[in-house]
Design goal:
four-stranded parallel sheet; 12 helices; 2 domains; Rossmann fold; five-stranded mixed sheet
Length: 420
């Protein structure tokens, strides 16, 4: 990259550590004396020419991003269609890049974002204003191809395992005369990585969770109820971890709402109450269910140190790749050893990542379909290791940062972004 600025944007659902990546991007660029702009609310802000001047933020504020959850610059769920379907959007992006002398674009997101980054790279060359486009990995779902793990996943995995362990102790305390079945619903539309992480709570055989329901395994109502009943009769209660994306034998989501989000993904309406209703109707047990929802991906107070370090590392590498003139690549995490756990960052082609989805391997699911294997535990455990707590104030609350987000002056005519 010869001169010019970098543009950084966050995309899709945020994580507990995505701002650590943003911190790394800005700190690394500042060290190289390269200006960084950030798109307000992701790709929508880039299209609207709503660009944040990160030089207006203090060094301390940027450093505080490393322990602040959410998306500091704003994210969005807005999927750009193909070049053929919506060429105008891509041409608008290149116009914005040209107007602000942006020579490197870092897009921090998941599968769809990798696809968008790849398309921007292609059309920028075609339109005579080549951009060094770098995809930056992020997703709690852990379903990006090529990379060993995705920044954001380790922290949601830690939150899930801890929550399962703590809630199960609560239920065990009360099961004699109160709740006998506890169901916790976790994220994971098509891949059961987060559900599998719940299995880490069981340090010994027989400990909760007693049942894990994966999207990769078709749900069987009869078998599920038999297993719940047998568990309650054996230990007095039953803890169930259910992925939001579990499906019936016909491949339909158990909790499908019949609507879709702006990425075109099926909206799911809550599998935990569905399962709880089955337990009530067929077994008559008192139950409770929990839906952590945003809590599981925003719990920075319980972030994994490994995850926070990896999130920072991919941001740093992304800037280094852009400044070195690399294009259409993503820094990915490569595991080099399980014991001791070691990892490194390497570049992978966006073409190998875009629109690909990494499912939970069959070898990570126990033969009965309701638990995890030793191989899964070997993969998962290092990802939740270590603590990286935020600083706490005198009021007992974490000290997080909110940026000023000063916009640069617009140079182009107003552009309407229509979300269909």
């Amino acid at each position: 990259m010869n001169g010019g600025k970098l543009l950084y944007a966050q995309s899709g659902g945020v994580t507990a550590v995505i701002n650590a990546t943003a911190c790394a991007v800005i700190e690394t660029a500042r060290a190289a004396k390269v200006p960084v702009l950030a798109a307000r609310n992701g790709i929508i802000g880039a299209l609207r020419e709503e660009l944040i001047d990160t030089s207006k933020e203090s060094r301390a504020a940027i450093a505080a991003l490393r322990h602040t959850p959410g998306g500091a610059f704003g994210s969005c769920r807005y999927k750009l269609k193909s070049l053929a379907e919506n060429r105008a959007h891509y041409e608008r992006l290149i116009d914005v890049f040209r107007a602000h002398d942006i020579r490197g674009f870092l897009y921090n997101g998941g599968n769809d974002s990798a696809d968008t980054a790849l398309k921007i790279s292609e059309i920028s060359a075609e339109l005579g204003f080549p951009i060094n486009v770098i995809g930056v990995p992020k997703t709690v779902d852990n379903d990006l191809a090529v990379t060993d793990t995705c920044p954001g996943f380790g922290s949601v995995a830690k939150y899930t395992a801890v929550s399962v362990a703590e809630a199960s102790l609560d239920v065990e305390s009360m099961c004699e005369s109160s709740t006998k079945v506890f169901i916790i619903e976790v994220m994971g539309r098509h891949a059961g990585w987060i559900a599998a992480a719940g299995g880490l709570a069981a340090r010994k055989a027989g400990e909760p969770p007693h049942l894990i329901l994966f999207p990769e395994i078709a749900f069987d109502e009869t078998t599920f109820l038999v297993r719940v009943k047998a568990t309650v009769e054996r230990v007095g209660y039953c803890t169930v971890v259910a992925s939001e994306g579990i499906k019936n034998r016909d491949g339909g989501f158990l909790a499908e709402m019949g609507t879709r989000d702006s990425f075109g993904h099926t909206q799911l309406g809550g599998v935990a109450p569905f399962l709880a209703n089955l337990v009530k109707q067929h077994l008559g047990y008192k139950y409770h269910w929990a839906l952590p929802d945003y809590l599981q991906r925003s719990a920075r107070h319980l972030a994994s140190k490994t995850d926070a370090e990896q999130a920072y590392a991919v941001g740093k590498a992304a800037v280094e790749y852009a400044l070195a003139g690399r294009n259409s690549v993503m820094p990915v995490i490569v595991r080099t050893s399980d014991a001791p756990y070691r990892w490194k960052i390497e570049a992978a082609a966006l073409s190998k990542i875009a629109n690909a989805e990494k499912k939970l391997p069959k070898g990570y699911i126990s033969r009965d379909g309701y638990g995890i294997t030793a191989a899964a535990r070997q993969y998962l455990e290092p990802l939740i290791r270590g603590e990286a707590p935020p600083p706490f104030g005198k009021d007992g609350l974490p000290v997080y940062v909110r940026l000023k987000k000063t916009l640069v002056r617009k140079k182009l005519p107003r552009y309407a972004v229509v979300d269909k």
